[in-house]
Amino acid sequence: MDPNVFARSILVITEKNMRIYYFKGPVVVFGLLFPLIMFLTFFIGRNLDIVLFFPGFLGMMLFFTASSVGPLITPWEKREKTYERLISLPVILESIIIGDLLAGAIFGVAITTIVFVVCAELLHLPLMNAGLLALSFVLGSIAFAALGTLLASPTTDNPSNIMMLSSLVRLPLIFVSGIFIPLGQLSGWEWILTSLSPLTYLVDLFHASLNGDAVYPPWLDILALVIVILVFIGSAKVIQKRNLVKGI
Amino acid sequence: MGLLCNFEFGTPRMDAIEAKNLRKSFGPVTAVDDVSITIPEGSIFGFLGPNGAGKTTTIRMMTGVLIPDAGTVQILGTDVNKDPLTAKLKLGVIPENGTVYSDLTAEQNILITAKFYGMDRASRESRTGEILARLGLMERRNDLVRTFSKGMRQRISVACAIVHSPPVLILDEPTVGLDVYSRRLVIETVRHMNREGSTILLTTHNIDEANALCSTISIINRGKIVATGSPEKLKKTFDTSRYVEVSFDRPVGHGLFSAPGITRAEPWGDKWRVYTDDPDRAVKHLASVAEREHLTIVSIATSNPTLEEAFVKLTAGA
Q1: CB of A119 closer than 8 Å to CB of A50
Q2: Do A88 and B88 touch (CB under 8 A)?
Q3: What's B237-305's CATH class?
Q4: Average pLDDT of B256-261?
Q5: Bigger pLDDT: B216 or A178?
Q6: Which of B86, B89, B99 sits opposite A80 (nearest CB)?
Q7: Alpha-carbon torsion, ordered B184, B189, B191, B195, to 10 deg
Q8: Chain A residues with a Cβ under 8 Å from any Cβ in chain B
Q9: Hey, is the C-beta of B88 within 8 angstroms of any chain A C-beta?
Q10: Is B91 an interface residue toward A (CB < 8 Å)?
Q11: Is B271 or B11 the better-scoring residue by pLDDT?
Q12: Do B103 and A20 touch (CB under 8 A)?
């Protein structure tokens, strides 16, 4: 396999996805408005410490934005009947998965960076470790864009089915990831449940990089996110390969 | 590199497509059963068959869209499943159920497709302009494809398939449902691409189209290739389907057509269609009975065997 052709196929798929899917209704609603409304609903009218809760808000923002593009792409292409043409171009399954993932990750990083910069200016937020924050952005966006790609993998040509599945998976995660209740205040079964959510490790990394009050060591958060990325991408590949064999 | 099997003017030529023993099942249904096809470089190859015969499944395996259960496909010597990126670079494809992006303009669709093939910016732009002009879409190049008719969308689909001047062009039912103008443009583009050196694999329901375009035809039925040859060779296989159409100045009965060499006769509008394996003998018989019965022959015509007859006989019961 020619690595240049492979890299090119990924970049062109990413460009195609950015041009077509960034402005679709479900991406704007589930990727931008939804996390904002969730946070405002939780924050307004309550005397909460914004510095303490900002890492959770940032984690939720990156989680929703990065995972909102992927679930839309493949079902949309199957419905519009552009998917078969795409596969017949010089691409392989891995190009499509990584291209979809990159489109979601870039969307997540771009929107979340804007939100962070604006909030940091307005609210005078602390920043303990800029390098770790940048790494958190990259790892978090890739992990949750990979989740979006995995959610798009089941066979359907109906994007609303996948968006429903996506909400079913994503909404419970934000309640068990240390966003609304700081990780340090959890114990027992709540602690165990929270440890199972990949979003927990991103929120904890944000705590480490912004406030320096993380619960886990950063290397553990990073390792957890890397494992999550590999599991999500591997699972998406297995499911989509099976779809290709079945011709669906 | 694949087998060198064609020689023209002493120059060895490679097979453009070589599919060997392709097999694909969906659950208990065998859609393609041990299909092998070899298409020499430079030819226009037609793939015919009734609905559900396995044409599209075969094409999808050849283009890397579907993974076969067994068998191999080589495009100009490159295995589609072992090295799909290299194989697909040599292909231009119009899938049966594939269309272009309706959220992009005509020009954007062609340009982004050209990027997949690694064309540089200048080549992409000049080639896109050239193709849009040839396909009569220059004035609509900046319009979103969602505003296009089916014929115009199909022309954009063709444009995307040929933008990189592929050595092998695979078209699955490219003219189905098109208006006459779009159909002619598509066919003319296929011919043009072949003149420019592309090998063409075409599936179609339109037998006249296959007859006019293709140098070789394979007919597939129930997942198996039932015949392969030139259109003329396939027609001759069914020489017994030749007939004579005759009309007289007054109605006649069935008994008039009982003679050696005439297999059957049936009323055909105001005429009779007389099927025979020897038209010369049948015409002489009809002339002699007309003389004997004092009938005037109003019209008489012989028909050559048609590709449609061959197709119907080969796919009977499908």
Answers
A1: no
A2: yes
A3: alpha beta
A4: 84
A5: B216
A6: B99
A7: 160
A8: 1-2, 4-6, 8-9, 12, 15-16, 19-20, 80-85, 87-92, 244-247
A9: yes
A10: yes
A11: B271
A12: yes
Q: Which residues in chain A have Cβ-Cβ distances shorter than 8 Å to B57?
A: 247
What residue ranges of chain B are covered by domains with CATH 3.40.50.300? 4-231
Between CA B23 and CA B113 the distance in angstroms is 30
Is B95 near chain A, with CB under 8 Å? yes
B112·A89 Cβ contact <8 A: no
Residue B307 has pLDDT above 80, yes or no: no
The ipTM, to two decimals, is 0.87
pLDDT, residue B306, reads 67
The pTM score is 0.82
Residues of A in contact with B100 (CB under 8 A): 82, 85
Closest CA to A63 of A210, A171, A217: A171
Is the CB of A15 less than 8 angstroms away from the CB of B97? no
Give the DSSP letter of residue B102: T
- Model confidence at B144, in pLDDT bands (50, 70, 90)? very high
Please name the CATH architecture into which domain B4-231 falls.
Answer: 3-Layer(aba) Sandwich (3.40)
Under 8 Å CB pairs connecting chains A and B tally to 90
- Type and span of the H or E element at B259: none
Indicate if the pLDDT at residue B89 is higher than 90.
Answer: yes
The reply to whether residue A90 touches residue B67, judged by beta carbons under 8 angstroms, is: no
Q: Which of B278, B293, B295, B269 is CA-nearest to residue B244?
A: B278
The confidence score (pLDDT) of residue A51 equals: 80
Domain boundaries, chain A: 3-246
> What percent of chain B stands above pLDDT 70?
90
- Please spell the DSSP secondary structure of A79-126, one letter per residue: HHT-HHHHHHSS--HHHHHHHHHHHHHHHHHHHHHHHHHHHHHHHT--
Q: Is B122 exposed, middle or buried (0-12, 13-18, 19+ CB in 10 A)?
A: exposed
Q: Which residues contact A124 (CB under 8 A, 6 or more apart)?
A: none
- A135, with CB counted inside 10 A (0-12, 13-18, 19+), is middle
- Which is more confident, B27 or B162? B162
| Cα separations in angstroms, A26 against A1, A160, B134 | 36, 9, 38
Interhelix angle A93-123/A218-246, nearest 10 degrees: 140
User: What is the mean pLDDT, run by run of 10 residues, along chain A of 248 residues?
Assistant: 90 94 82 80 76 86 89 87 91 94 94 90 87 95 93 78 80 79 77 87 93 90 95 93 80
CB–CB of B115 and A82 under 8 A? no
Q: Do B112 and A85 touch (CB under 8 A)?
A: no
**Bigger pLDDT: B1 or B276?**
B276
3-state helix, strand, coil in chain B (%, to 5): 35, 30, 30
Beta strands in B173-215 (DSSP E): 199-203
Q: Measured between CB atoms, does B268 come within 8 Å of chain A?
A: no
